[in-house]
Design a protein that fits this description.
Distance between the termini: 28 Å
Radius of gyration: 16 Å
CATH superfamily: SPOUT methyltransferase, trefoil knot domain
Shape: globular
Structural class: alpha/beta
Strand order of the largest sheet: 3-2-1-6-4-7-5
Helix content: 25-40%
CATH class: Alpha Beta
CATH architecture: 3-Layer(aba) Sandwich
Length: 167
Amino acid sequence: MQLTHQETTFETSQFPITLVCDHIYFQQNIGSLFRIGEAFGVEKILFTGKDIPLNPRKINKTSRSTHLSVPYQVFEENESLIQHLQEQNYEIISLEIASNSKALKEVHLPQNKKIALLIGSEINGISEPLLAVSNQIVHITMYGKNSSMNVVQAASIALYEITSKLI
C-alpha cells in the first residue's frame, strides 16, 4: 500500500552541503533542483550567472513549493562566488567529466568541512574558473554511448551518493 506524505517515516535531516549551480537557466531544472535539494537536506543553493530566472510562478510547478523553504543566493560573477566558497572553507566538489575526474564512488568527504557540490550549465557544463578551484572533480560512470545526462538527474545521483556517506 502506498503511503501518503504524512504517513512516511523518513527522518528529516540537513547535511552540510551547498548545491552550486553554474549558469543554470532552464526554469524546469531550477525548480527541480530546489525539490531535489530539499529532498536530500541541502543547507542552501547558490546560483551563479546574470538574470537567473527565479520567478516563483514559473518554477513552482517543478519545485512543488520547495523554493520557499530552501535558502538560496545568486552571485552574478564567478569571481564573487569563488571568493565566497574559499572564505567559507568549503570542500569544492565539481560534478563533471574531465581529464582529471574520478568516479563519484571515489569521492572523499573530509571530516568537519562543508561541501559545495558544483553542477554545470545545461549547455556548457562547469566553467573553467570553477573547475580550477575545485578540490575534487568527480563524474558519474555511465555505460551507454551518451556521455551526459540532465543536470537534475546528475545532481540527484551525486546527492544520493554524498549523503549516504554522511549518514
